[in-house]
Amino acid sequence: MSQHGVPLGLLLWRKIRALGVQSVMGVPGDMNLELLDYMKSVDGLRWVGNANELNAAYAADAYCRIKGCPGVLVTTMGVGELSALNGIAGAYTEQVKVIHIVGTTSTTAQRNRLMIHHSLGPFPDHKVYEKISQHVRAAHCWLDNLTTAERDIDRVFHDCHEKSLPVYIFVPMDMVNLLVLPSSTPSFHRAPIVDYADEAAAVATITSMIYESRMPVVIVDALVARHNVIDIARKLVHLLQFPTFSTSMGKSIIHETHPYFHGIYNGQVSRPGVCHSVETESDLVIDLGPILSDSNTGGFTRKIPEGNLISIHPRCVKIGNSTYKHAGLASILGALLREIDTSKLPRPDFPDLPEILPAKDAGSVTITQSWIWRRIGSFLRPGDILIAESGTAQFGLPDAKLPENVTYLTQVYYGSIGYSVPACLGACLARAEQSREGRVILVVGDGSLQLTVQEIGTMIKLDLRNIIIIIINNKGYTIERAIHGPEECKNMSFWNHLKMLEFLGAKNGKTCSRTVRTKKEFEDVVCLPGYTCPDSIQVLEICLDVMDLPWQLEAQIALINAQSEETQI
Ligand SMILES: Cc1ncc(C[n+]2csc(CCOP(=O)(O)OP(=O)(O)O)c2C)c(N)n1
Ligand SMILES: *[C@@H]1O[C@H](CO)[C@@H](O)[C@H](O)[C@H]1NC(C)=O
Ligand SMILES: *[C@@H]1O[C@H](CO)[C@@H](O)[C@H](O)[C@H]1NC(C)=O
Ligand SMILES: *[C@@H]1O[C@H](CO)[C@@H](O)[C@H](O)[C@H]1NC(C)=O
Ligand SMILES: *[C@@H]1O[C@H](CO)[C@@H](O)[C@H](O)[C@H]1NC(C)=O
Q: In angstroms, rounded to a whole number, what is the distance separating the alpha carbons of residues 219 and 288?
C-alpha cells in the first residue's frame, strides 16, 4: 500500500492514535460509515458508539480532562454535528481539547448543491453548518484536497493542543478512500509565540516579589489542569510551602491532604476566615490559571488588591497593572521551579482557619445538604474520580475533603446540565486506559439526569464496572426553586430510579439499585462490597428535602439579590 499511499481515512485514524487517543466517541451515519471502517485497522483504537451526539461530545470532553490528550468524536453532517454543538461549546468555554470529526456529503454533491438528506432547504449550501461552529473552535479544515490534507490535519491538531480548545475536521465521504503519500517528516510546524525577554522579566519580578513578601498565598485554578501543567504546579506549590487555596473549578489539582492546603477560595462564598486571609492578611497572591466566571468567584465577590496580585494565565502574566505578553503558564512555572532560591523564601506564620460551625440541622436523622457532601468526601479513596453535576451537588461538593490522587470533574462555567452522566463514561474509559485503579463516582441531580440518562446504557453495553451513580433526588430542580421560589418546577419528576439500570440492560440492575433517606441507611449501604470494591454499576438514590440547600448556594443567592437591590436603587 505504501507505494501508492495510504487511504486518507486510515491516515486520519493513525494520526489520532498517535496523539494518545484510544477511545473514539460518536454516532454512525451514512456520511461517516466508511471513515469509521478504517478505525478497525488501527491497533489500540476503539469505537465507543454513544446514545446521541450531545453525549458523545460531553464524553470526549471528560476523556480529555482525565487523560490530557484530546477527546475525539465523530458525527454526521447537520443532524449529528448540530446535536454535539452544545457539548463542544462547553469544551470551548472551559478550554478542553476536543477533536470533532464530521462526515459530510461528497465534494461533487457539495459543488452541485444537491438536496441530499440532512441538507438545509432547496439548492442547499452543504457547508452552512460549518459556519455555525466557528465560534466554538480554535481551528478547522476540510479534507477535500489530497495535496494539503495531511498538513491541514497536523495544523488543526497543533492548534487544538496549543490553545487547549476544540477543533473541527470535515471529511467529505468521497475523499475517505483516496490515497495520500504520508510525509516522513512533520508536515506542519509553528513555533509557539513566546517573548523570552518578557518571560524573563516576569520571572525576575515574580521571584523578587516573593522574596520581599511577608504573607504570600497561592490560588490554583482550572487552567492549570486544562493546559496540562498539573505536575509542575504541584511541584512548585510543594517547593514554596505557602498557604494554598483552590477554586471550585481547580479543586483536586493540589492534594487536599497537604498541611499547606487551606480549602476553597471563592470570594465571599468561602468558609469563614478564607476571604479575610487571602484579601486582607496576605500581601502577595499568586493566582495560577484563573477562570474568573461568576460561580468560580463567589458571584464576582473576589477583592484582591491589584498591587498584591500575580496572575499567571496560559499565555500571559499580569502583575499589578502590567502585562507580560506571550509568556506561557508552563514555561513560567518551570522557570520558577528552577530559579527559586528556597533560602530566600518567607515562612509565613499562617493562622489556622476556624472550623466550620456545626450546622443547625447537624443532629438530623435524615440526610441533609449540610451533611452529605463532606460524607461523600470521606467515602472517597486515592485514585477515585468524583464527578459533580451542576445544581446543588456542584455548590455543595467543594466542602468534600478529598484524599490524595482523587480527580474532581465538574463543568462550572458553562454549566450545561446533563454534562456529568456522559462525562462519567468518558472519564471511566480514560482511567481504564491509564491502567489506574479507582472508582468513578458520579453525583447527579434527579433533574439533570433526565437530559442524558441514556448514556448509562453505553456504560452497561461496554461492561464498565467501577461506577457508582449517586442520584440526588429532591424532586426536581431545587436550585431553580432556590432562585425563583418554592413553587417553581413542581411535580416534574416521577421517575423510578431503582428500575433505571434494569431498563438500560444491566442484568443485575435490581440488586445494584438502592434508595436511602437516613444517615444510618447511607452508612449501611456504602460499606457493602459493591461500594468498597464495585464489580458492577451501582445506583444509590439519596432522598433530600425539596428546599434543602448547601450553604454556598444560599450565600451566593443572597449576594446576587443584594447586588441587584443595590443596582435598582
Ligand atoms: C442544558 C441546561 N438547561 C437548563 C439549565 C438551567 N439549570 C441549571 S441547574 C438546573 C436544575 C438542576 O436540577 P437537579 O439536577 O435536580 O439538581 P438540584 O439542584 O435539584 O440538586 C437547571 C434546570 C442548565 N444549566 N443547563
Ligand atoms: C490543492 O491544494 C494545492 C496547494 O494549495 C493547490 O495548488 C490545488 O489547486 C488544490 N487542488 C484543488 C483540487 O483544489
Ligand atoms: C500601576 O501600578 C503602580 C504601582 O502599584 C502605580 O504606581 C501606578 O499608578 C499604576 N498605573 C496605573 C495606570 O494604574
Ligand atoms: C498518588 O499517586 C502518585 C503517583 O502515581 C503515587 O506515587 C502516590 O503514592 C499516590 N498516593 C496515594 C496516597 O495513593
Ligand atoms: C403535584 O402532585 C401532587 C401529588 O401527586 C398533587 O396533589 C398536586 O396537585 C400536583 N400539583 C400540580 C401543580 O400538578
A: 6
> Quick one: how far is CA 289 from the chain centroid?
14
What is the fold, at CATH topology level, of the domain defined by 196-344? Rossmann fold (3.40.50)
Ligand found nearest the CA of 172: 2
Whether 546 lines ligand 5, by a CB cut-off of 6 Å, is no
Q: Exposed (0-12), middle (13-18) or buried (19+): which is 277, by Cβ within 10 Å?
A: buried
- In the chain, where are the structural domains located? 6-180, 196-344, 369-552
- Cα dihedral 317, 338, 19, 72, rounded to 10, equals -40
- Positions marked catalytic: 30, 53, 117-118, 415, 446, 474, 476, 480
Q: Do domains 196-344 and 369-552 have the same CATH topology?
A: yes
Ligand 5 centroid to residue 492 C-alpha, Å: 10
Mean pLDDT by 10 residues, the chain (569 residues): 82 97 98 98 98 99 98 98 98 98 98 97 97 98 97 97 97 98 84 87 97 98 98 98 97 96 96 95 97 95 97 96 92 96 94 85 97 98 98 97 97 98 98 95 97 98 97 93 83 90 97 98 97 96 96 92 76
**pTM tops 0.85:** yes
CA 452, 454, 455: angle at the middle one, nearest 5?
80
Task: Point out the ligand 5 atom lying closest to the alpha carbon of residue 491.
Answer: 1
SS3 label, residue 516:
strand
What's the CA gap between 491 and 548, in Å, rounded?
Answer: 17
Architecture of domain 369-552: 3-Layer(aba) Sandwich (3.40)
321 is in an annotated binding site: no
Write down the architecture of domain 6-180 according to CATH: 3-Layer(aba) Sandwich (3.40)
Is 221 annotated in a binding site? The answer is: no
Question: What does DSSP say about strands 179-180 and 6-7: parallel, antiparallel, or unpaired?
Answer: antiparallel
